[in-house]
């Protein structure tokens, strides 16, 4: 096979690998969401203890992260002072624990399909909080798009057959805390040159979450668990559920590392539609035409937002390349002038 054929084989292999990473992430994300719903829903496994479930995940994930970093040395730990940890990681850990607690609690009250529709508000929350904390600049065009996403989600909520106010408040709270966490990661970590991948994130953040969740757990769920004498810890159910949660973090590491964050956003849209279809066809959740119309409208807004982000990234990259080429050209010109000056000095000396 010729040189061109070998290049084609390499490109095909790269494309196939990218699709494999996307498929693994979608499968694991899909599995964790459905599995959590199965455990927490009163009509299924009937174990409505979201704080305890989140604590099991955090304990398992932090233990494995320590083993991967300290024993197997798969990734290097980030150099971080105690002051940086307290000021930057602890607030992020607090927000993450609240986000996980509320989002897992929502599965008790809402259908999987409706939760995915409410999650479409994430770009709205991230942009709004970014503007409030002066991380994003206010643009009327972007805000109009955010309002269209919100309008679409509002229509989906209006068309929800089994609307539960408390469940919606829990999910909206989870979205708000998660959006704040994402913005604070940029302000408290990325701006300081600290970049955490999913494994190092678990290494630093998961123990934090465990501590923060312990206090509400003592007062909210521990007394009920003590009274529930019929409950026995199922190592198969909670073990496999925790393995899936940790594997999802590894899949994020692979997907973002081998492709891009934008690929993950697009894959997330595919996953949401698959979950809605699964929720309707297998779990038998009611999905109304108004649900689909509202979510379709929100989906278009999210797709346009991602398109604008991609265009902005392309423009930034192009500007960087132009700047680099200008610097290289200026460097060459300076070298030429220095050479000419040196040649003239040599002539003068002769």
From TrEMBL:
Domain of life per record: Eukaryota
Q: Which Pfam families match?
A: TPT
Which InterPro entries does the record associate with it?
EmrE-like, Sugar_P_trans_dom, TPT_transporter
Annotated segments matching region Disordered: 324-350
* Species per Swiss-Prot/TrEMBL record: Arabidopsis arenosa (Sand rock-cress)
* Lipid bilayer topology: Multi-pass membrane protein
Q: Where in the cell is it found?
A: Membrane
Would you tell me the protein name for this molecule?
Sugar phosphate transporter domain-containing protein
Q: Taking every annotated instance into account, which residue ranges of this chain make up the domain Sugar phosphate transporter?
A: 20-306
TM stretches of this protein: 16-35, 47-72, 84-102, 108-130, 165-189, 201-219, 231-255, 262-283, 289-306
